[in-house]
Amino acid sequence: MKTKRKEKKIPQETIRRLALYLRGVRKLTSQGLSIISSNRITKHLNISPDQFRKDLSYFGSLGKRGVGYRLDMLIPHLEKILGVDRECRIIIVGVGKLGSALLAYPGFLNFNFRIVAAFDNDPAKIGKVIEDIKIEDISRINKIVPEFRVHLAILTVPSDSAQIVAEKLVESGIKGILNFAPVNLNLPDNILVLNVDMATELMVLTYFSNKVFDIKGFKS
Amino acid sequence: MKTKRKEKKIPQETIRRLALYLRGVRKLTSQGLSIISSNRITKHLNISPDQFRKDLSYFGSLGKRGVGYRLDMLIPHLEKILGVDRECRIIIVGVGKLGSALLAYPGFLNFNFRIVAAFDNDPAKIGKVIEDIKIEDISRINKIVPEFRVHLAILTVPSDSAQIVAEKLVESGIKGILNFAPVNLNLPDNILVLNVDMATELMVLTYFSNKVFDIKGFKS
DNA sequence: CCTTGTGAAAACTTTCACAGCT
DNA sequence: AGCTGTGAAAGTTTTCACAAGG
Q1: Which of A2, A33, B24, B188 is the least crowded, having the fewest Cβ atoms under 10 Å away?
Q2: In Å, how far are A80, A136, A169 from A143, measured between CA atoms?
Q3: B interface test, pick of A207, A212, A220 with most B CB neighbours within 10 Å
Q4: What ranges do the domains of chain B cover?
Q5: Is residue B150 left, alpha or beta, with left meaning phi > 0 and alpha meaning psi from -120 to 50?
């Protein structure tokens, strides 16, 4: 990333970890805890307490020395930083098997993400209702995105059409795309794209598991 | 310490990019190209040519100065490094909506990943066949993993049971896990875990899209 | 002129260590 | 005594710049 701001530089991975912390501290709250140390928070997250404190310090100080962090302050703090204190409207584009599965995924609501529409170009699917969401023709993206002030799109169309559909999304005013199609999208710099590519993840696992073999002296 | 090979430190992200390169060069081959420069390869990947050459250089030199890379050598080279030159057997554990979608995902085969079994604990599902794969009872993991010499597992069970199921997978001899449950798995160090967490990705997108607003001076 | 391969510099991220507050 | 917050050190990754080869 090439942000050339004078603001102190926040590592990208810090943001990803903040999301992890939010999950973690919510779980601890539900266990009845109210004040908690960096040590305790990170115990089950495979992250060092130092890293946690450093990550938080980018956004001002919140803990009490000698004491720890108040969960009732920490949770809203993290939610505010991540922007999940307000509802974020999202759409799913491409209602194949994966798109349908994501439509039904309950975990989005925990973080204030609301799926407001789903799109496909298959006439057999358009008009059907899945999980209370009516499937719309893809040509209606331009109408619905501004109307519902949609921020983000989950893109689960076939690779062939990913680029062109992504361009439509950009045109309609979307700000970011979570792309499940295994292609690199070429879009303007101000559009954020994160790729989720299952085959790549498996390759990374394969590479490192072979490495472990080597080091341990095993044979496959 | 025990590795006999030259001990250069290879960045983790390099491996992820190699998978990207493999996708890219395969596409270029299908366009009839046979020799190609780092510039051309990375043109549509949002990666610099320098990065590409550096990444490759960790594994020895393969290109010809003044010329470029021969695709018929580059592709097998990348495949070998990533370990996708041999079949890798995988299983899917948890055949809910997401698990079923992944069972049907055709992209795994391009990289020699073969799904050999699927597991669930729901009696209503056990015995059913999806995409030519019979769904087995989760208790049979211990039998099937060694029998088919399964390397990797895709974990798509509910969060509550993810840890305990993961431990069963480790017991059975699995080497790595692609975890879709939004919890941190605590497993031995020699087991590789990669997490795919849709809500986290959306939060990262939200964070950065708000940042872009700020920088550009827009309002939401 | 091409383009690769690679040390060296620059940039970035994590870990350390300790001052300072409760 | 216990824990946070944070500069400074250590470690890691990317970018630069250029020698060397077709």
Answers
A1: A2
A2: 30, 11, 11
A3: A207
A4: 12-82, 88-199
A5: beta
Sequence-distant (≥ 6) Cβ neighbours of residue A206 within 8 angstroms: B82, B83, B84, B88, B151, B152, B176
Residue B104 has pLDDT above 50, yes or no: yes
CA distance A16 to chain B (A): 6
Question: In this structure, which amino acid lies at residue B64?
Answer: K
B3-56 pLDDT, tens digit each = 333 456 899 899 999 999 999 999 999 999 999 999 999 999 999 999 999 999
CATH code of the domain occupying B12-82: 1.10.10.10
Q: Is A33 exposed, middle or buried (0-12, 13-18, 19+ CB in 10 A)?
A: middle
Chain A residues close to B202, C-beta within 8 Å: 88, 90, 108, 111, 113, 152, 178
Say whether the CB atom of A9 is under 7 angstroms from strand C. yes
Per-residue pLDDT of chain A (220 residues; tens, 9 = 90+): 333 334 578 998 999 999 999 999 999 999 999 999 999 999 999 999 999 999 999 999 999 999 999 999 999 999 999 999 999 999 999 999 999 999 999 999 999 999 999 999 999 999 999 999 999 999 999 999 999 999 999 999 999 999 999 999 999 999 999 999 999 999 999 999 999 999 999 999 999 998 864 443 332 2
Closest CA to B116 of B82, B86, B145, B156: B145
What are residue A5's DSSP bridge partners?
Answer: none
- Asked if pLDDT for residue B2 goes beyond 90, the answer is no
Residue B9: per-residue pLDDT:
83
Rounded to whole angstroms, the Cα distance separating B41 from B188 reads 38
How much is the pTM? 0.93
State the nucleotide closest to B50 in CA–C1' terms: D15
Do B100 and A97 make contact, defined as CB atoms within 8 angstroms?
yes
Contact A204 B186 (CB under 8 A): no
Tallying the residues shown for chain B, one arrives at 220
On whether the A88-199 domain is CATH 2.120.10.30, my answer is no
Q: Do residue A16 and residue B175 have CB atoms under 8 angstroms apart? A: no
Contact residues, chain B, for A215 at CB < 8 Å: 2-3
